[in-house]
């Protein structure tokens, strides 16, 4: 059975970081739900803190270094993405945005993406909806309905009768991503997600169809 390729983008700056911790929990939940259905998953984690210098050089030179090129190619081959950023000044981090700025805009077209973020206070939770989700919508990704925000106080909470705690939100978002992946054929070992060539319909034939 061909395994699904899941790429996890973590933009945490410290080591260890709550951003990476949230990314790991989302990854574990997604893999668990897919393997429960008998599906195999290959996971690759991209730590953006390790690529910060390469990303800056890419903006200046126009060419990615080997490590950045490998990360970009991994995103292109991926069947699905988990993208997690810390929230700074009510938006995604500059490092997170810069990574997606150096990727060809068509790379993420139609690709399932689970978005998540961490921050010190719950007041920044809507940054996922007014900043992160529009970014991936612009890139024409298929973003799962549930975004996951983890404030400092969320770790270890179980929620109440009206709201889910962090574990519940993680499981729900992971289930949505797993469902999208399960509806797609894995990209396969050779490839990587390369789109099949579209059949070209001659212009005269298109005009004839309009006259019918």
Automatic annotation (TrEMBL):
The keyword Flavoprotein applies. Residues 5-153 form the NADPH-dependent FMN reductase-like domain. Keywords: Flavoprotein, FMN, Oxidoreductase. InterPro entries: CE1759_FMN_reduct, Flavoprotein-like_sf, FMN_Rdtase-like_dom, NAD(P)H-dep_FMN_reductase. It comes from the Bacteria. NCBIfam families: LLM_duo_CE1759. This is FMN reductase. It comes from Kitasatospora purpeofusca. The lineage of its organism: Bacteria, Bacillati, Actinomycetota, Actinomycetes, Kitasatosporales.
């Amino acid at each position: 059975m061909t395994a699904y390729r899941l790429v996890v983008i973590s933009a945490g700056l410290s080591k260890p970081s709550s951003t990476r911790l949230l990314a790991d929990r989302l990854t574990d939940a997604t893999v668990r739900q897919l393997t429960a259905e008998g599906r195999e998953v290959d996971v690759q984690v991209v730590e953006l803190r390790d690529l910060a210098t390469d990303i800056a050089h890419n903006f200046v030179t126009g060419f990615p270094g080997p490590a950045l090129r490998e990360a970009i190619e991994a995103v292109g081959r991926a069947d699905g993405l988990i993208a997690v950023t810390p929230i700074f000044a009510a938006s995604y981090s500059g490092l997170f945005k810069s990574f997606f700025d150096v990727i060809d805009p068509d790379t993420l077209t139609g690709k399932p993406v689970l978005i998540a973020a961490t921050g010190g206070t719950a007041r920044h939770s809507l940054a996922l909806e007014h900043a992160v989700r529009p970014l991936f919508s612009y890139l024409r990704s298929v973003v799962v309905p549930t975004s996951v925000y983890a404030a400092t106080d969320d770790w270890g909470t179980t929620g109440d009768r009206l709201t889910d705690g962090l574990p519940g939100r993680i499981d729900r978002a992971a289930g949505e991503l797993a469902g999208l992946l399960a509806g797609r054929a894995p990209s396969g070992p050779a490839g990587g997600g390369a789109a099949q060539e579209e059949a070209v319909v001659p212009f005269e034939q298109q005009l004839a169809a309009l006259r019918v």
